[in-house]
Amino acid sequence: LVSGSRSSKTFKPKKNIPEGSHQYELLKHAEATLGSGNLRQAVMLPEGEDLNEWIAVNTVDFFNQINMLYGTITEFCTEASCPVMSAGPRYEYHWADGTNIKKPIKCSAPKYIDYLMTWVQDQLDDETLFPSKIGVPFPKNFMSVAKTILKRLFRVYAHIYHQHFDSVMRLQEEAHLNTSFKHFIFFVQEFNLIDRRELAPLQELIEKLGSKDR
Question: Staple partner for 188: which of 9, 88, 151, 193, CB 3.0–4.6 Å?
Answer without folding.
Answer: 193
